[in-house]
Amino acid sequence: MSEPKYRDLDLDFIPHPVTKDIWNKTNDESVKRSVRNLILLNTYEKPFHPEIGSDVRDLLFELATPLTAIRLKKAIQEVIENFEPRAQILDIAVSNDIDNNAFAVTIVFRLVNEDRVESLSFSLERLR
After folding, report:
1. At what angle do helices 66-83 and 27-40 cross, to 10 degrees?
2. How confident is the model at residue 31 (pLDDT cuts 50, 70, 90)?
3. What are the Cα distances from residue 109, in Å, to 7, 24, 68?
4. CATH number for the domain harbouring residue 67
5. Is position 1 within any domain?
6. What three-state secondary structure class fits 128?
7. Which residue range is the domain that position 31 belongs to?
8. What is the pLDDT of residues 55-107, one digit of tens each?
9. How many independent structural domains does the chain possess?
């Protein structure tokens, strides 16, 4: 088996049951976690790097219209293209979930220099 190409810390900080070390995320799981973190990060929220962020959470307080879904899609695409060089976006789908006052997001991407296509799905909802 080949050495993992990408490696990041698991931000859940769950210790390994035997070694008590924090688990690592590798390859596709590492990139998925990074993409999700970038999307949920607001501009000016990261110390010493105020340019990193998407302000997606601000759009969640707008009316759930098709225009808001388009703006969400554009903001997600922009932050991934600008700050995640390991992922090449193939498709982004954003749909209204009016019953739960949320947006369902599915991102299909390919890891750079690999043929495998990965998918990341999650729900964006406001907390307040």
Report:
1. 130
2. confident
3. 18, 21, 22
4. 3.10.450.40
5. no
6. coil
7. 7-11+20-125
8. 888 888 888 888 999 999 999 999 999 999 989 999 999 998 887 778 999 99
9. 1
